[in-house]
Write a structure and sequence with these properties.
The chain has a five-stranded antiparallel β-sheet with strand order 2-6-5-4-7. Helix 3 (about 95-110) packs across helix 4 (about 140-150). By secondary structure, the chain is α+β, with helices and mostly antiparallel strands. About 35% of the residues lie in helices and about 30% in strands. The two termini are about 25 Å apart.
Length: about 230
């Protein structure tokens, strides 16, 4: 997992620099969530209760310093396996298109074993707070197979970049930080905190908004279990 550690380190260094120089990336859509109509098609993993409970404990500590940032409610925190069709305001998909995606995912996923996860460590990016996720090889196997099979079947894949991370976004910057240095220190206090281990035997195909607040389950797929 050296490549994954390097990725998290790079993200964290950029985040620390953004906070120290008061140049965090504020998400303008958080000012009025009700009019944000962006939706997309995503394959994601839900986190178990013991992990979200530990994350909530940490978020409550961060809220003491920066109450007016956006903190993800427990039931919206997730790990993105793949952004299949990116979230846009004029999102459209025919029933036939959706069925084609479902069929390819089903054929792909039935050959992949359950994924093991280790969630540990809180870091900042320039625009968000992340929980680092470390995963078994099955996740990358699934991602690579999906990319190949979508292409083979002529299906659009709108990944902004080839996803390699396994993180969960747990907060975003809604406005400038009031106590940037103290906030950074608090994040650092949880740099090595253990959030928990779990195994994923199911992944969800959803149409959802950018923050996973409004999520419509299309299909739940089962991975192979031994």
């Amino acid at each position: 997992m050296d490549k994954l550690n390097q990725l998290y380190t790079q993200i964290e260094q950029q985040g620390i620099q953004a906070i120290r120089t008061r140049q965090v990336q504020i998400d303008p859509n958080l000012q009025n969530l009700e009019v944000d109509s962006r939706q997309g098609l995503t394959l994601l993993v839900k986190l178990p209760a013991h992990v979200t409970r530990n994350i909530n404990f940490v978020l409550n500590e961060l809220k003491r310093l920066e109450l007016f940032q956006y903190y993800y409610p427990a039931n919206t925190i997730h790990i993105t396996v793949m952004d299949i069709r990116r979230a846009v305001s004029d999102f459209r998909m025919t029933k036939e298109e959706l069925i084609n995606y479902q069929q390819v995912i089903q054929k792909t996923i039935e050959n992949v074993n359950a994924i093991n996860w280790h969630m540990a460590g809180l870091i900042c990016s320039p625009g968000a707070i992340l929980v680092k996720g470390f995963y078994s090889s099955e996740l990358q196997q699934l991602r690579n197979a999906l990319r190949t099979n979508f292409l083979k079947n002529g299906l659009v894949l709108d990944e902004r970049y080839a996803t390699f991370s396994g993180h969960a976004t747990v907060a975003r910057f809604k406005k400038n930080l009031i106590h940037p240095q103290e906030f950074l220190s608090e994040i650092n206090n949880f740099h090595n905190v253990e959030f928990g281990d779990f195994q994923t035997s199911e992944v969800d195909l959803v149409i959802h908004d950018w923050y996973n607040r409004r999520s419509h389950l299309i299909e739940r797929f089962s991975l192979k279990t031994t």
